[in-house]
Amino acid sequence: MSKHTTPPSTGVLATLLDRRDALRRRLGVMARFVEFCTVGLVGATVYLIVISLLEPHLWLGTAAFVGGLVGLVAVYSINRYTTFGDRDRRGWWRQFGEYALVNAAGFAVNWGLTTWLGTKWADSILWGWPVGVQAAACIGIVAGAFFNFTAAWVFVFRKRRLEHSDSH
């Protein structure tokens, strides 16, 4: 029987957890990065749904802000219990604040790299499409995701400390 990082279950969930654990054993931290990016896609979907629901009633900037916040809470919550479920879980609000700061820094990495490369490659056109800007955006997205994952792994969801028994 495999050792799960979450409570053992039966049926479909148990099968998914077994497959996840097998991938983690085989690929190590890279498997967690894939999980992290998959959860990020869920967050992007939540963001788009919230904007679509709110935009007809609110200013787009407000809808985007609320969508981003709801998406961030969703991604944090999912990552806290799945991708990083076996790691440190301090207080929800404190850890959420750390996660939000990490994500803000990751956005800065994404934005900075996209803008810097995009201005250098702005004239790159392929079949009439501004591929330079699109390539810069893709590189920015990957760099931001890698930064967010690494910072979340190291600073937000640290490895759990072993409980020390005081037998003095």
Determine Rg (CA atoms, Å).
19 Å
How far the N terminus sits from the C terminus, by CA atoms, comes to 37 Å
Name the overall outline.
globular
* Major β-sheet annotation: none
Helix share, percent: over 70%
| Contiguous runs where pLDDT drops below 50 for at least 5 residues | 164-168
The overall pLDDT average reads 84
The tally of domains stands at 2
Tell me what the structure shows.
- The protein has 168 residues and is mostly helical.
- The protein has two domains: 9-86, no CATH class; 90-159.
- The protein has five helices and no strands.
- The radius of gyration is 19 Å and the shape is globular.
- The two termini are 37 Å apart.
Characteristic key phrases:
168 residues; mainly alpha; 5 helices; disordered C terminus
